[in-house]
Amino acid sequence: MELKWDKDLDDKALDLLSSDALDQIQEKRYDAEMKEEGITDIVKIGVAFSGKKVKIST
């Protein structure tokens, strides 16, 4: 799971930020150690929030 935050974002910007969080999970290979241990059922979650608004991407 990767969390991102920014001030005063509209819904479209929040969507992009949650997508960026997922991209970071891929680029930095946060799941590599789990894969090495044989874990194959991995859920990647990108969460972006701004004030009281939240966007979750999988």
From TrEMBL:
What InterPro entries has UniProt attached to this entry? PDDEXK_9
Q: Report the protein name in the record.
A: Uncharacterized protein
Q: What Pfam families does UniProt report for this protein, alphabetically?
A: PDDEXK_9 (PF08011)
Superkingdom assignment: Bacteria
